[in-house]
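Cross-posted from the bioinformatics board.
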Amino acid sequence: MPTYKLTYFNITGLAEPIRYILHQSGIKFEDRRLTFEEWPQYKNDMPLGQVPVLEIDGKPHPQSRAVCRLLARQNNLAGSSNEESYKIDAVVDTIDDLRQAISQYHWEKEPAAKEKLKANVDTKLPFILQKLNDRVKKEGGYFVNGKLSWADLFYTAASEMFSGLLETDVNKDYPELRKLVEKVRSLPNIKAYIETRPKTVF
Amino acid sequence: MPTYKLTYFNITGLAEPIRYILHQSGIKFEDRRLTFEEWPQYKNDMPLGQVPVLEIDGKPHPQSRAVCRLLARQNNLAGSSNEESYKIDAVVDTIDDLRQAISQYHWEKEPAAKEKLKANVDTKLPFILQKLNDRVKKEGGYFVNGKLSWADLFYTAASEMFSGLLETDVNKDYPELRKLVEKVRSLPNIKAYIETRPKTVF
């Protein structure tokens, strides 16, 4: 069994989908959470100057979605055909488009720019969530082909972050997404992790 | 043999990596290029209101990188182990991080915001290109394990776009990247495509 060590900050953010996939797959890992004060002294050790980084047997793996996909492949969460894998990837990239819009809005300080980024979120959020909701309905309660995949874990983690950043439950008007997230959060390993994870703002 | 129809604008942009992978794989496809004037009448037909979209036997496939990965898997350009596939994915996501920084800068109209985005590009561009250059050197002339993958095709297409948007040859100070791009552009199918493709600004 390889050893796993995940380095990130003490927030959900880009690392939470990795944490969810590791927990769901029953993989033990060191969940290293740096403070923002500690970060400068670690930055240069990271392959791309960024976190999250997952070390597998000491070998650093940057790029969060690529890491998720690797773990998902190794743990039967990445689809069982090329077409299923494609659908999962397309859902994840769509969720990530939304994440970028929300993050940019959240971190922007300059009022006029922030207002423009807010307008972008206000357009994108309902448009994409409706598409995702329709897909879960059509696909039988999960994003792809009626069975759990890393897209479902990714969305659950992402939507918790979106709700935190936007200070509202983003799933509230999307019954299929709400049911999906509840289902994922009730998976025994995920449930146990959620109950014990550090409380963070987002 | 399925039929393929790719819809995008008459630019390289997000579609060119898909076009490169299709051409390299010897797959015939309809390369539909909409004018920006035509776009509003097609937008609502697209699954996510965006292009590129690749129709395979009439079924629409949105999300450019997910489409690239699907085609790459089907045509032996996606690595021959989970670890190789991961490395390819991580390179592609790193290139895409840079694409986003450059695109945001290019399309921003407001001078103060544009200046900030320019500073971001000025930091990211040399940092990422140096990392990518080092990787190609270490990995034997390609991004992963001394053999052609969709990461190499993706970078070649992306760096042409970066050079067009920034009005400079972005590879000029990175000898390994320059050699890689020349090698890809000399592949017979890619060469034939480049010689006959529509001339576009970027």
